[in-house]
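Sequence in, structure out. Go.
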Amino acid sequence: MSNPGEKLAAAVDEQVQNFRSIQEEIQKLRNDQQLLMQQQSENEMVRQELNLLDDSAQVYKMIGPVLMKNETEDAKQTVDQRLELITGELKKVEKNIKAKEEEAQEIAKRVQEMQGAMQSAAVEAAKLAAQQAAQG
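Output:
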């Protein structure tokens, strides 16, 4: 028969591994969030620059290695659409980060409870061993 303390320790190790895995996922999501925020900032600057231009100004768009003439209004619409897309992606990433952080907190709480149970079990086992030694 295996030691119940070993089972509990294995369960704690498993939960700690889950916690670390979730922390890695959170870090990846934060990196994604940072990249999206950078893209959002760049596109905001482009929008501001386009808003300074009058309608007769010539705007060029890079398509591969070639610069193509683009209408100012088309460029503004493209930037606005890109900003909408980035904002939507940012909201999704933030929602995922929040969910993963909540999940990590739950696991951390479980690990603490399990470690407390292990300590209590160890104290009880030590008392039992001391009693048996005294009687034996």
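Check: The CA atoms of residues 27 and 97 lie 9 Å apart. The chain has a mean pLDDT of 91.
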